[in-house]
Design a protein that fits this description.
Largest sheet: 6 strands, parallel
Bound molecules: adenosine monophosphate
Number of helices: 10
Oligomer: single chain
Strand order of the largest sheet: 1-4-3-2-5-6
Helix content: 25-40%
Radius of gyration: 19 Å
Length: 280
């Protein structure tokens, strides 16, 4: 496994590698969710590249950039064990050299949900993903359904800007009690960790109701909210959404693929999760 820090040497390496080339972008602090993306890429691609970069431009001023978990050595060991061929792990200066001043500004899709709670977040995500694509030049790029809005924003960017890579979505990996794996779960106290599965229980309730024939989005939102509110440790609920899976516009009736999503606070930690309903 090659670990490269520079844009030039990374592009050189990927120019001559066997194709198809699959890219798994990450911010490190790897867990089984990331590794599911890597395994899918390994199964489908002749060459697998992963990137590790805690992207400063997608963090708001009051967010956890400084404390975001980092463990490069452990991450590299995990990626090597999965048979990754190349890791691109640039410094912030390599990605954003002095004078950097060009951005990708996603549209309405990025203003809802996470975008409303985290202004500028998807501008940072779209810009860094575009840069990763330009440096690594993959044929396919693997993203988790866990970050459903991110996936939608990236799909739209690739479509709108005629970018090359095929975007592959990988289902959310969860702990046995339903909590979606996230690097931020490491922030939870034992009590908060015990309370956290309420998030998936709440989303599953919407899924259950929908399977029972409920198509009213308002009633699905209310059901999710009710389960969330049953957990006294939940400090705040940023949103409960039942939205069109493609546009993320809030629905009145679920008639096609829809994403039920929520963002909640447990102490200082903000957790997001979603489930899909209404798919064929
Ligand atoms: P991050 O390091 O949090 O930026 O995540 C890197 C990639 O891993 C993104 O495409 C995430 O959606 C994906 N990911 C994170 N957690 C999970 C999970 N529990 N299951 C599946 N994919 C995940």
């Amino acid at each position: 496994m090659q670990t490269l820090n520079s844009n030039t040497t990374t592009t050189q390496a990927t120019t001559t590698c066997p194709r198809p080339l699959g890219l798994v972008p990450t911010m490190g602090a790897l867990h089984e969710g990331h590794l599911a993306l890597v395994r899918r890429a390994r199964a489908e691609c002749a060459t697998v590249a992963a990137s590790i970069f805690v992207n400063p431009t997608q963090f708001g001023a009051n967010e956890d950039l400084a404390t975001y978990p980092r463990d490069m050595e452990r991450d590299l060991g995990l990626l090597e064990a999965e048979g990754v061929d190349l890791v691109y792990a640039p410094t912030p200066e390599e990605v954003y050299p002095p004078g950097f001043d060009t951005w990708i500004e996603p549209g309405a899709l990025a203003e809802r949900l996470e975008g409303a709670a985290r202004p500028g977040h998807f501008r940072g995500v779209a810009t860094v993903v575009a840069k990763l694509f330009n440096v690594v030049r993959p044929d396919r790029a693997y993203f988790g359904q866990k970050d459903g809005q991110q996936l939608a924003v990236i799909r739209q960017m690739v479509r709108d800007l005629n970018m090359g890579p095929e975007i592959v979505a990988v289902p959310t990996v969860r702990d046995a009690d339903g909590l979606a794996l996230s690097s931020r779960n490491a922030y939870l106290t034992p009590e908060q960790r015990q309370a956290a599965p309420v998030i998936y229980r709440a989303l599953s309730e919407a899924q259950r109701l929908w399977l029972d024939g409920e198509t009213g989005a308002g009633r699905l939102r209310a059901a999710v909210l009710e389960v969330l509110k049953s957990e006294p440790l939940l400090g705040g609920i940023d949103y409960v959404s039942v939205a069109d899976a493609g546009t993320l516009e809030e629905l009145e009736q679920v008639a096609g693929p829809a994403m039920v999503s929520t963002a909640v606070r447990l102490g200082q930690t903000r957790l997001i999760d979603n489930v899909l309903i209404g798919s064929a």
